[in-house]
Specification:
Its EC number is 2.4.1.1. The modification N6-(pyridoxal phosphate)lysine is found at residue 666. It holds the Pfam family Phosphorylase. The chain is an alpha/beta fold. β19 (587-592), α23 (600-618) and β20 (626-631) form a beta-alpha-beta unit. α13 (375-381) crosses α14. The protein is globular, with a radius of gyration of 28 Å. It starts with 12 loop residues before the first helix and ends in a 10-residue tail after the last helix.
Length: 823
C-alpha cells in the first residue's frame, strides 16, 4: 500500500475517551447520547483492540527482524476468561479507566459484566494454556497458541430441582469485539477420500490421496497482551466453514438437499466443544475436530516459516511445536505427510525434522483418558495418515528388534497399534515416538509417566522424559482477581512481584507482624463479604463472612473425590444434630464444578450436594454452624470470585490420580490453606509452604498402588470398624437427604462398599476428618491461622507460569526473549 501507516494509538486517557466515542458513533452507528452500558463496553473493547493491534504488529515485526525461533502451542481448548478486564490490568490502566467511566456515570466492574467468558475450554488443560500465553507475552517470548474457534462452549450449567441441567453456551451471542477475522489466511482442509498407489519415474513409491472432501479453516486472532503491554502475541483460532462450491456430482444428480447437507455438516466441526463420544458419530466428529486443528495449525506455521526461509529442512531451527496432551497427536502424521508427500523430503530426513520440531506434554494418568482411535475410523477419515502411522510403527518396531533381544510382549506394549480390543491407534504412543521431549506436569506425575504409563519408552530414551511443573499467571490470579490483596502486597514490598513472583518471599517476615496479619485478614474478609453478596443474589442462601469458607471448585469426577468432601459434611451435620457437637467455628462449604453430560455418577454427586444443602441450610439446629452452597456454572469469572474468599482449599484426589492441578496453586497463592493428599503438585506446594502450613491426610501413591494391585482393599472392613463411616453411609443409603426418593443415593452406598473401589474413599476418610479437626481448632485462633495464610502466599513464587515457561523455553523449545528496543 503506497501510503504511510496511520498514527499509533496512545493510552492517554483523553485519547481513549475520544476513541470510545468514535467507536460508539462509527462502529456501532449510534449517537453517544443514546449509548447503553453494553454499547460503552463494546466500544471500550474495540478501543483497546486498536491499541493491542498496534503492539501486536510491532511485536510481529520485531520477531521477523530478529529471525527469532518461534514456539507454537497446539491445544484443543483454551479457557481465557473475560478479556476486557485482563487487558486493562495488563496495560496497567485500571485506575484511569475506572475514573473515566465513573465520570460518565458508569462503574468499570459493571461494564466488565457485559462480557461473556469465551467458552473455549473445559477445565485445567485449557486454563493452563491460557496462563502460558500470558506468560509468553509477559516474558517477551516469541510464542503463540493455536486452537479451535468453538461457536458453542461445553455447556452452561444451571441447577433445577437439585440437578444439573445443561444448556447451550452460545458465548458469541454478543460477539467478541477483541478478535480479528483473518479470512485472507484461510486454509483448505482435506478429509476422507482414498489413497491411490503410484510410482515415480525412478520406481519409488508415490501415494496419492484423492477424492477427498474439503472444508475451509478461517482463522480468528485474539491479541494476548503481556504485562505492561510492550509485547502482544496472539491466540489463533480456526472456525470451520464450507467451501463456496457444492459437491457438483451430487448436485447434478438432483439431490439438492444432500448437497446442502454436506455444506452444513462441514461447519459442525467448530460448532461445539467436545461432542459426546459414546456414539460413533460423536467419535468421528471429535477425530475430525482434532485433525482440523492439526492441519490448520501446521499449514499456518509452515506458511509463516517459508515466507522467511526457503529450506523446509531448517524448520526445527526456527520452529518449536508443543502438543498439549494427545488431542493434537496427529501432528506427527500430518507433518510427515506434508514433508514426504508434498515436499518430497526423504523419509529419514523428514522423520528427523518431525521429531526435532515436536514436543509432547502428557496431562493424565487415567487410562480411559489416553486417546485411541480405531483403525477402521482412521482409514475412513484419514486414509493417508493411517498409512503413515503404520509405516512409522513398522520402522520403530524394526529398530527395537535390531537393538537386541526383545520378547513379543514388549513389542505389543510398545507398538503404536493396540490389537487387544480391535485394532486401535494409541495416540499417546504416537506422540511419544514422534517427539524429542515428553514431559509431565508435576514431579510425581512425571515420575509416574515414566514408571507407569511409558516404562518401556523411558528405558529406551531416558533423556527424552522430563518434568515441567505447572504454574499459574500471577497477573490474572492475584493482581486482577484479588486487587485488595495485590494492593496490600505492593504496598509492603513494591510491585516487582507481578512479573517476578519469587519476590513474595519478602512477605515471610511479615507473617510475624501482627499489624500486617490483621490487614491480611481484613482483605480476606472483604473478599468473603463480596462472595456472600454474590451467593445471596444467585442462590438465595445467606452466608456469614465470619465463617470459615471451605471450597472445592473443579470438574466433578470420582477421582477428585467430591464424595469424600460430602461425607465429611454429613459427618459434621450428624455430630451437630445427633451428638450435640458445637464446632469451634462456623463453616461454609462451597462446591463448584461441571459434570460431563453423560457421566451419571458425577451428575448424581451434584444432585446429592444440592439435596444436602437443602436439608442442612433449612435445619435450624445446624444452619448457624454449617452451610452448604453449590455455585453453578463454574468458569473463570466465577473462579475469580471464589478463590480470593477461600480459607480452605480442598485438593483431595486419590494419590496417584491427579497429574498436577492448578486450582491448588491459585487458592494457595491467595492465602487459602490446603487440605490434600500427596498427589500431583500438592507435594511440591507442601514442600514450598511448609508441612505445618498444609493439612495432609490419606494414603500415599505406593500404598494406593499396592492396595489396587494386590486386591487388598476391603471397604467393608472400614465400614465395620469405624462407626463414623457406618453412620454417614447409612444416612445416605436410608434416604436421609432424599426423603421423597429414599433410594435415590443407595448406589453411592453400594459403590463405596464395592470390593476394591477404585478411589479408596473409606480408606482415607478417618485421616481426612482428623485433618479437618485440626483445621477447625486452628482457624479458631486467628493469629495462628493468619500466620499460616500469609506464609502460603509468601512461598508460592515457584508456582508462577513464568517460571514454567522459562523452563520450557530453555530445556525444550530453544526460544529466547525478544524484548522491544531499549527495554
Amino acid at each position: 500500500m503506497p501510503v504511510d501507516s496511520c498514527p499509533l494509538h496512545s493510552l492517554d486517557t483523553g485519547d481513549i475517551s475520544c476513541s470510545i466515542r468514535e467507536h460508539v458513533t462509527h462502529s456501532l452507528g449510534k449517537p453517544c447520547r443514546e449509548a447503553s452500558q453494553r454499547d460503552v463496553a463494546t466500544a471500550l473493547s474495540l478501543t483497546l483492540r486498536d491499541r493491542l493491534v498496534d503492539k501486536m504488529l510491532e511485536t510481529r515485526d520485531r520477531y521477523r527482524e530478529s529471525r527469532a525461533k518461534r514456539m507454537y502451542y497446539l491445544s484443543i481448548e483454551y479457557l481465557l476468561g473475560r478479556c476486557l478486564g485482563n487487558n486493562i490490568y495488563n496495560l496497567k490502566i485500571q485506575g484511569e479507566m475506572g475514573a473515566l467511566l465513573h465520570g460518565w456515570g458508569y462503574e468499570l466492574e459493571d461494564i466488565r459484566e457485559f462480557e461473556r467468558d469465551p467458552a473455549l475450554g473445559n477445565g485445567g488443560l485449557g486454563r493452563l494454556a491460557a496462563c502460558f500465553l500470558d506468560s509468553l507475552a509477559t516474558l517477551d517470548m516469541p510464542g503463540c497458541g493455536y486452537g479451535i474457534h468453538y461457536e458453542y462452549g461445553l455447556f452452561k450449567q444451571s441447577i433445577e430441582n437439585d440437578r444439573q441441567v445443561e444448556r447451550p453456551d452460545y458465548w458469541m451471542a454478543e460477539g467478541m469485539p477483541l478478535q480479528l477475522e483473518r479470512r485472507d489466511q484461510s486454509v483448505i482442509v482435506p478429509l476422507y477420500g482414498r489413497v491411490e498407489n503410484h510410482q515415480t519415474p525412478d520406481g519409488s513409491y508415490l501415494p496419492l490421496w484423492v477424492d477427498w472432501q474439503d472444508l475451509v479453516g478461517v482463522p480468528y486472532d485474539i491479541p494476548i497482551a503481556g504485562f505492561g503491554g510492550q509485547t502482544v502475541n496472539y491466540l489463533r483460532l480456526f472456525a470451520a466453514h464450507s467451501t463456496d462450491s457444492f459437491n457438483m456430482e451430487i448436485f447434478d444428480q438432483g439431490d439438492y438437499i444432500k448437497a446442502v447437507h454436506q455444506k452444513i455438516y462441514s461447519e459442525l466441526i467448530s460448532k461445539i466443544l467436545y461432542p459426546n463420544e459414546s456414539i460413533s458419530f460423536g467419535k468421528e466428529l471429535r477425530l475430525v475436530q482434532e485433525y482440523f486443528l492439526v492441519f490448520c495449525s501446521l499449514r499456518d506455521i509452515t506458511r509463516r516459516f517459508l515466507k522467511q526461509n526457503r529450506n523446509i529442512e531448517e524448520l526445527p531451527e526456527y520452529t518449536a511445536i508443543q502438543l498439549n496432551d494427545t488431542h493434537p497427536a496427529l501432528t506427527v502424521a500430518e507433518l510427515m505427510r506434508l514433508l514426504v508427500d508434498e515436499r518430497r523430503v526423504p523419509w529419514d530426513r523428514a522423520w528427523n525434522i518431525t521429531t526435532s520440531t515436536l514436543a509432547f506434554t502428557n496431562h493424565t494418568l487415567m487410562p480411559e483418558a489416553l486417546e485411541m482411535w480405531s483403525v477402521e475410523l482412521l482409514e475412513k477419515v484419514l486414509p493417508r495418515h493411517l498409512q503413515i502411522i503404520y509405516e512409522i510403527n513398522r520402522r520403530f518396531l524394526d529398530s527395537i528388534r535390531q537393538s537386541g533381544p526383545v520378547d513379543d510382549a514388549k513389542i505389543r506394549r510398545m507398538s503404536l497399534i493396540d490389537e487387544n480390543h480391535g485394532k486401535q491407534v494409541r495416540m499417546a504412543h504416537l506422540a511419544v515416538v514422534g517427539s524429542h521431549s515428553v514431559n509431565g506436569v508435576s514431579k510425581l506425575h512425571s515420575e509416574l509417566v515414566k514408571t507407569v504409563l511409558f516404562p518401556d519408552y523411558a528405558a529406551l530414551w531416558p533423556g527424552k522424559f522430563n518434568n515441567k511443573t505447572n504454574g499459574v499467571t500471577p497477573r490474572r490470579w492475584l493482581y486482577k482477581a484479588n486487587p485488595g490483596l495485590a494492593g496490600l502486597i505492593t504496598e509492603a514490598i513494591g510491585e516487582t512481584w507481578i512479573t517476578d513472583l519469587d519476590e513474595l518471599q519478602k512477605l515471610v517476615p511479615l507473617a510475624e507482624d501482627a499489624a500486617f496479619r490483621e490487614r491480611f485478614a481484613a482483605v480476606k474478609r472483604n473478599a468473603k463479604v463480596r462472595l456472600a453478596g454474590f451467593v445471596a443474589k444467585t442462590t438465595g442462601i445467606v452466608i456469614s463472612p465470619d465463617a470459615l469458607y471451605d471450597m472445592q471448585a473443579k470438574r466433578i469426577h470420582e477421582y477428585k473425590r467430591q464424595l469424600l468432601n460430602v461425607m465429611h459434611v454429613i459427618h459434621d451435620y450428624l455430630r451437630i444434630t445427633e451428638d450435640g457437637y458445637l464446632p469451634p467455628t462456623p463453616r461454609v462449604y462451597v462446591f463448584a464444578g461441571k459434570a460431563a453430560p453423560g457421566y451419571f455418577e458425577a451428575k448424581e454427586i451434584i444432585h446429592l450436594i444440592c439435596r444436602l444443602a437443602r436439608v442442612i441450610n433449612a435445619d435450624k439446629r445446624a444452619s448457624e454452624h454449617l452451610k452448604v452452597v453449590f455455585a453453578a456454572d463454574y468458569r473463570v469469572s466465577l473462579a475469580e470470585k471464589l478463590i480470593p474468599a477461600a480459607d480452605v482449599s480442598e485438593q483431595i484426589s486419590t494419590a496417584g490420580t491427579e497429574a498436577s492441578g492448578t486450582g491448588n496453586m491459585k487458592f494457595s497463592l491467595n492465602g487459602a490453606l490446603t487440605i490434600g493428599t500427596l498427589d500431583g503438585a500438592n507435594i511440591e506446594i507442601r514442600e514450598a509452604v511448609g508441612e505445618e502450613n498444609f493439612y495432609l491426610f490419606g494414603l500415599t501413591t505406593p500404598e494406593v498402588e499396592r492396595h489396587l494391585a494386590e486386591g487388598s482393599y476391603d471397604p467393608w472392613e472400614y465400614y465395620r470398624k469405624h462407626p463414623e463411616i457406618r453412620r454417614v453411609l447409612d444416612s445416605i443409603s436410608a434416604g436421609r437427604f432424599s426423603p421423597d426418593e429414599p433410594t435415590a443415593f443407595h448406589w453411592i452406598f453400594e459403590k463405596l462398599l464395592a470390593k476394591n473401589e477404585r478411589y479408596l474413599h473409606l480408606a482415607d476418610f478417618m485421616s481426612y476428618i482428623e485433618a479437618h479437626e485440626r483445621i477447625g481448632m486452628e482457624y479458631a485462633r486467628p493469629d495462628v491461622w493468619m500466620r499460616k495464610a500469609v506464609l502460603n502466599t509468601a512461598r508460592m513464587g515457584y508456582f508462577s507460569s513464568d517460571r514454567t515457561i522459562r523452563e520450557y523455553a530453555k530445556d525444550i523449545w530453544g526460544i529466547k526473549p525478544i524484548p522491544p528496543r531499549g527495554a
